[in-house]
Queue: 2 jobs
Job 1
Amino acid sequence: MEHLLSFSHRCGADPDLVLAGGGNTSLKENGVLTVKSSGCSLADIRADQFVRMDLEALRAIVNKTYPHDDKSREALFLADVNAARLPGETRRPSVEALLHALFSQRYVLHLHPALVNGLTCGRFGARAAAKLFPEALWVPACRPGYTLARLLADRLTPEVTTVLLQNHGVFFAAETEDGLYALLDRMLQILAAHVGRPLPPENALPPADLSRPFTPDHIVYCGLGPSLPDTENARLLYRDACKILFYCQSFGGPHPLRRDLIRFITNWEAESYRKKQG
Ligand SMILES: [Zn+2]
């Protein structure tokens, strides 16, 4: 637990890695998954803001079939995820708790750094990822939560330590805290070298188009335009979108979220829950 708290705090304190509480962490120990709860901030998360879950019960959910309709599927999935919590747990686990469970490694770290999302939101992101990170799995943009976990269920062999999610972010998995940092640092170094020029000062960043968001976080905090909500998180996430726009010029130019995914995120109860907590 100490290590889980220390790497959560360390990543959460770095604005290049975590904005507005985005990202999540987990630990597996003796058949229990301890995962960040939804809507709290990694930078100052406390032990009681993690949710302890029955690892086996959680993993079993990936083999269930749910209705095709978004609303019914997400409601049933949420009920099953909540039922996999250990007795006495009342917090809502991260929307990606199931995916955390499917990795075999002890520690999992999920982040949305702008530098990484320059790659995942670039038009030629998949091609660049195959060249720069041949060991990583690349997942084309899809619905988060159950759909994402289901897509990856048969591909997460114990050798997989890195998963790049198009228009979303990255997952790292390792047996030790140092192993996670090594994966993260290596990726950031390779990407910085590929981009090959420093991020310009804020007033020289390209302006992002709010009607064409890059990731779910941009929809949750910035809305879909034409103007930015007057909150600190909205300003942070808007600047993040501008940074992604700068970085993705090194990966074929911008590839915004698909329209059907924008619609799904906009109507997703799990995201409006997260926004309310933040
Ligand atoms: Zn995420």
Note: Residues 2-195 form a domain with the L-fuculose-1-phosphate Aldolase fold (CATH 3.40.225.10).
Job 2
Amino acid sequence: MRDVIIVGGGPAGLNAALILGRCRRDVLLCDAGTPRNAVAARTWGVFTRDGTPPFEMRARAQADLARYGTVERREIAVTEARRDGTGFAVTLADGTVETTRKLILATGLHQALPSVDGFETYWGHGVHACPYCDGYENRDRALVVYAHGAAAKGMALELTVWSRDVTLCTDAHPTTLSAHDRARLERQGVAVIETAIRRLEGDGRQPDRIVFADGTERPCHAVFLMPMPCDPSELITQLGCDLTRKGVVPTGEYETTNVPGLFVAGDASRRVQFAVVAAAEGAMAAFAANTELLREDVA
Ligand SMILES: Cc1cc2nc3c(=O)[nH]c(=O)nc-3n(C[C@H](O)[C@H](O)[C@H](O)COP(=O)(O)OP(=O)(O)OC[C@H]3O[C@@H](n4cnc5c(N)ncnc54)[C@H](O)[C@@H]3O)c2cc1C
């Protein structure tokens, strides 16, 4: 039986493995190799690594792990996880079953893009999820906020931090904008367009305009999407983890969950979705897992 199995080798899983390797724990890290930010050319806002390509960051972290002989890293998906006595049993894609005392899920998150023609084409280089990650590189350009419902006003106002040329597009979805909200958006120079979007157009590398169903167009250098609900990993649902309405795990301090011995770190848990936060959550989960193992061993 392993001390800890970590599922997911992004910033959260890799940093968890690093801390646990330094605690000399017997760790298996399984990663399917499909990181959420694979489409992005660079990762911004990471201490000492600002602007590093995501795969370079992973390769560096993997090289760091090679120093720790008790950490085994496998490029393989985990297909099933269940409780097994006081620990867990996980099934890998090749049919192998591994058992562990503690389990850290760092599986990231999976969000579908709104079905607008062109969004898929420009995803990661013109269509973005997070202004903290990509707002600065698009500063002072024509920005479109794709948002509706209760998220619309806040998201549109947030983008004015990066540009004074912001258009809120609801794509004909209902919004909850009151007359007061509309006045506030207008005061901040945010245009509101509630017509359906036909497509996002550009030269294939960068969008330059958004075309509406009525044939009108608007300049658009980048689109920022409202947070979309996400599909939790099957492992999270198999283990009976609580979920928020947004489909992430409402972890406690140190990334604990409602399932004893199970930790969820990174984008799969509820906090802001930055690489450096995911890495920090991985470290906290590792700290907590190591502490629980120690307590059990000395009891
Ligand atoms: C387009 C885009 C650009 C971004 N840009 C930035 C940025 O500039 N700066 C920033 O701080 N953040 C950025 N982010 C957010 C950042 O990528 C995430 O916060 C971070 O990657 C989360 O790390 P994670 O370890 O939780 O998940 P991920 O990095 O998504 O890694 C999860 C890993 O788990 C693996 N996995 C999932 N299920 C299984 C399974 N069943 N078995 C085995 N492995 C599994 C996946 O294959 C994947 O490798 C960006 C996100 C996107 C989508």
Note: The domain at 2-111+229-298 is CATH 3.50.50.60 (FAD/NAD(P)-binding domain).
